[in-house]
Records
---
Amino acid sequence: MRNIPYGRQQIDQDDIDAVIETLKSDFLTQGPKIEEFEKAFAKYVDVKYAVAVSNATAGLHIANMALSVKEGDRVITTPITFAASANASRYCGAEVWFADIDPDTYLLDINAVKKLIESKPKGFFKGIIPVDFAGLPVNLESFRSLADQHGLWIIEDAAHAPGGSFIDSKEQVNKCGNGKYADCAVFSFHPVKHIACGEGGMVTTNDEEIYNNLKLYRSHGITKDNMSEDPGGWYYEMQTLGYNYRLTDMQAALGLSQLKKNIEGVARRNEIANRYKEAFQNTAIKFQSLPDGALNAHHLFVIEVENRKGLYDSLRANNIFAQIHYIPVHTLPYYKEIGYGDADLSKAENYYNHCISLPMYPSLTDEEQNYVIKKVLVFHG
Ligand SMILES: *Cc1c(COP(=O)(O)O)cnc(C)c1O
């Protein structure tokens, strides 16, 4: 049997053809595929605006910039995420404080966030960055009302969740990244995520001003719109200090072709999740709970077990490359040394001691999954 990783991309002939077609076209970058991809993605997640970027970390950076995050601001995020969720605010000079997770959903616990905010004077914090961890959507309606009470912005880190959704109190389905409750959302097109561009990302928003700023920061702060003068066709203005965070047309062509498969991909991921749940339901193995009405996009399938290191090593010995998501960000040496706040993060730390992500990707066969299940149960049943 081939090695079984925890996640992998699926590249079919139509993906390859799409990239080759772009290679033969007039534009390798800054061409028509970018806008086509942005429009298709915006439609997919039910949002007004989408801005394609070179990766989700760049997307998080310009999302912070578009929300005017600056030196000395304080933001709150979850410790159970990839470091980039926190790092992007650091690029803008902000302090990153952590609040604990809910031990059942593994998501940022709104009560812990509330407690942290209320323990400080008014205006102490500026924003919240909740993460749709493993693909499970955060209930942003609740976070929005908390944020509004305290004048905070929200950036949804939806890197794990294209195609996920939750139902709000009005019984409306809210797709991750739809911008109804968050100011903006960020997606990743790294190959372990749902949509593979090699590298790539997308920022979504319903706010026109944020959208215009995202476009400026993506491309050096240079624009041909809203200029102070217009002496001729060559003229452009650099209106602010931006970056080169652009996606190429080859990547956008691949992204477009990958996006078309994501509905099917998320359905298959849920099929795989249900097979795992069925196999582990009467054992001591614990898995992420699913709130009523939520659709988990399942970037990951995480279980919690007593002897995690033992299971990790035993699966490796059987060519199953399970992974750990994540080492809590506040325990990484860089953040440990800074040591923002003193919130109780024991649930995140306890989760980390037991979690392991099993193989989860649409092309995982039933036979491969049965093999994984068997090896997990042999060790842990
Ligand atoms: C992968 C990931 C990112 C960063 O994505 P890149 O596209 O690799 O920059 C950010 N946040 C989370 C939660 C991620 O999993």
---
Amino acid sequence: MKGEGQRSNAKCLAYVAAFVVFQTAIILIFALTVMRIKNPKVRFGAVTVENFSTGNSSSPFFDMRLMARVTVKNTNFGHFKYENSSIRILYGGMEVGEAAVVKARARARQTKKFDVTIDISSSKLSTNSNLGNDIASGVLPLSSEAKLSGKVHLMKVIKKKKSSEMSCTMGINLGTRTVQDLKCK
Ligand SMILES: *[C@@H]1O[C@H](CO)[C@@H](O)[C@H](O)[C@H]1NC(C)=O
Ligand SMILES: *[C@@H]1O[C@H](CO)[C@@H](O)[C@H](O)[C@H]1NC(C)=O
Ligand SMILES: *[C@@H]1O[C@H](CO)[C@@H](O)[C@H](O)[C@H]1NC(C)=O
């Protein structure tokens, strides 16, 4: 009788231990995946050029329209709701154009895509010392910046502030009127 009782006690303990291990594993997996909230990533997908007009190296200027596909990659298990923002295009560190980004949400584990139109012009530059050289080289170097600030919403209760920053560089090939070497960090 005594032996049987001990055996069933040991069996019971083994069940409890197995259950605890199982629960711990589930909680750990949950904590490492679902609960780990990461910053979404915003970047340019593709950029094309329209309404292109530039001067030569002795009277340098540029005016053009960039049509850009923007992607907001949200790897979280909850949606990312971001506020109104803007995307700025810079030449030599100075702003030459801007586009508004209207507040929206990127759904859980999806990449939201939208298009923006940005008119850029060298007339917005106060100094353009290197513009003649860049035009002579045939490639106009540009960069872009944006910051989307918002919250990742998890399971209707957890809201965590997150932001997504864009930092891309590209060159406008003045011969082919296309964007080359688009790189985003
Ligand atoms: C840009 O070009 C399109 C046609 O390609 C034209 O309809 C539009 O008026 C132009 N915009 C500007 C600002 O020149
Ligand atoms: C540059 O453009 C200006 C104005 O269009 C023109 O007068 C000048 O001759 C051009 N210079 C060269 C080197 O092509
Ligand atoms: C966001 O932008 C839209 C469109 O420009 C505007 O109507 C709205 O009032 C803005 N919302 C906020 C909170 O600024």
---
Amino acid sequence: MQGLQMVDLKRQYQNIKAEVDEAILNVVASSAFINGPDVKHFSSELATYLGVKHVIPCANGTDALQIALMALGLEPGDEVITPSFTYIATVEVVALLRLKPVFVDVDADTFTMNIDAVRKAITAKTKAIIPVHLYGQSVDMAPLLELAKEFNLPIIEDNAQAIGGTYTFPDGTQKKTGAMGTIGCTSFFPSKNLGCYGDGGAMFTNDDALAEKLAMIANHGQKVRYYHEMVGCNSRLDTIQAAVLRIKLRKLDEYCSARREAADYYDNAFANNPNIITPFRPAYSYHVFHQYTLQLKNVDRDKVVDLLAEKGIPSMIYYPVPSHKQNMLKDFGGADYNLPVTDYLNTCVMSLPIHTELTEEELKYISDNMNEIVNQLSK
Ligand SMILES: *Cc1c(COP(=O)(O)O)cnc(C)c1O
């Protein structure tokens, strides 16, 4: 089978081409490339979608996390609790701001932050917690929010992989991921669940004062032009990207459903394979499958990857090295950490193609080959 990809942005574009082309050409014709009307419209449409008061757009998801930390006014040396099992951006910004990342382990079934581990990691120096809704799975937010309240700690949700996802509280109320913490952050990198055609990001909050501060930091620390109140940065969402995002936001729920249907197909196809552990679906999380990540047992993962590639099937390891073992972060006690679940998962996880345009024929081809390869290697 030809042309299989982890994410097929080209095919998605073909299906929305007319709308997208028109929107982009309209921006070009207006020449309002920076802070054009689409940026404001998109921000308010996204706020409505998420059920938050404020959406502050910025240049990318990494900036969103950085600006969020800056807005909380943390001091060098303050501790920020994060999982090690995440994309590096979550942790990099903590180190960049001379804050101290404190790594906690994840749960083996959900791949997200273990809440008991967070409790144990809290010290007098802890000033923030960054839960990551990894692969599209919501962190178990109810106990985390209680903990944060008990210790009066702000929560920055890294929602770069889970936009469109939902968390259900024990009393049945539901909230969108990214809309539960003090500040939510997301990325509009093209391959994310809500992706633009370049770089983009945003922060969300219900706090009016914080919203003002986030916007100010993203705009050179100014509220009034040329009067700079604080050190900020230059982080904007381009109008062209906002115009694309307005179109794709309207399709986000449909896109999430398409990803979930593909995940359902894989789950069924692998249900009877003892050497493939399919993603866990806790009742509290409406998983939006940014990645379809499974755990392999009793097989050489590299061989599985190679044999799939021979059949034209791409696969990825997210992520081969956990944050606490990255050279970048060696000053933060990397080797001293004991994160057994993180270390274990880094040896056995594997992600298969998942996107909004996968056909049943493709899903069958991928899962049939996957089953065959794993069965053959585990003998
Ligand atoms: C993609 C991603 C980011 C960073 O987003 P960029 O827009 O690439 O800067 C941060 N955290 C997580 C978990 C991500 O997946």
---
Amino acid sequence: MHKHPSALGVATTLTPAAPVTLIRPQAAARAARFFVEKFPGRSLYAVKANPSPDLLRTLWDSGISHFDVASIAEVRLVAETLPDAKLCFMHPVKAEEAIAEAYAVHGVRTFSLDTIDELEKIMRATNDATDLELCVRLRVSSEHSELSLASKFGAELGETRELLMATRQAADALGICFHVGSQAMSPQAYSDAIERVRAAIVDAAVTVDIIDVGGGFPSVYPGMEPVALENYFDAIHRGFESLPVSYSSELWCEPGRALSAEYSSIIVRVERRRGTELYINDGAYGALFDAAHIGWRFPVVLLRDEESDAAMTGFSFYGPTCDDMDHMVGPFMLPDDVATGDYIEIGMLGAYGCAMRTGFNGFTAETVVEVADEPMASLYAEPAPARRRATVIKLG
Ligand SMILES: *Cc1c(COP(=O)(O)O)cnc(C)c1O
């Protein structure tokens, strides 16, 4: 692994012809310590946001001991990388073989489910094990979130009573979990969901041992600047304290984005300029899936030794593949004199960015460089990073 003091240094000394992935372990460690110290319960890292083994080790070293995994490949990856980690298999629809291997080979005891079918599947796959922690996933609203997770999973009101009672019979510990959708922009999302949990508990009259409020904790992007995470934690703590659960019950959360967004960014090169359209060497099939498909705006900065004093202009990007869909509408704010050959850092790609990369059309990014400078934005830096504060804040 190469190490460099800064993104600018990487661009000017390596002058890379392909995109470079930058990693900032210190930023991920800071995010992990924040959750470990301030979340009023246990924080599980949701591996799908970024399964890089280096990141998994960084989070572990910073106090994250539990991992939310969703596939047998994620189970194997974390078990191999961190043999002492506790794995929670939180995908509500699993292959029976995956459950059996997770239980028998990797020691997984925690599973989520949202139907009686899945409960029966788990019991078959574990030979009616008596040491299971089973979390019933409730469907909750995604109205406060940028990315909905409301239509695919979760038991509906009306189905939860029977499901909670049957799961209580089968489980050593009974949990209730939900996911408010990713990048939840208001703590209210969690308060509302916890009210759903209350109704379900009262209706089924079961003893609940675990409340898992899922992921959805936001990061910071242009035009999406959430209130401080402490507000989310306070809302969750208040809601949890008022639930009719046993005195010894546990509170869990499963952040993916919030623990990984600041970990990575990329350096791309401009290969052509056409008006306010820049043809860059990474795109929709690389780290910019969300920028292309849901118009997500990531922060950008021009990496030049001499800072440009040209006025800021909104640009759109084309990625390197031959596909028209490889287009990121932005707008991405850059100095108006940006030209072919310039390098740009695109920030906050540690969550659902670098993890989504494909090799489509022969374009990929193999070089990874660790840098010591601050990420382009942060929810954890005190004070907010000065280097790019204006870039991030003014874009809103
Ligand atoms: C994706 C996912 C997460 C992580 O969500 P973020 O919005 O990245 O925090 C947590 N739990 C489950 C079950 C998920 O599917």
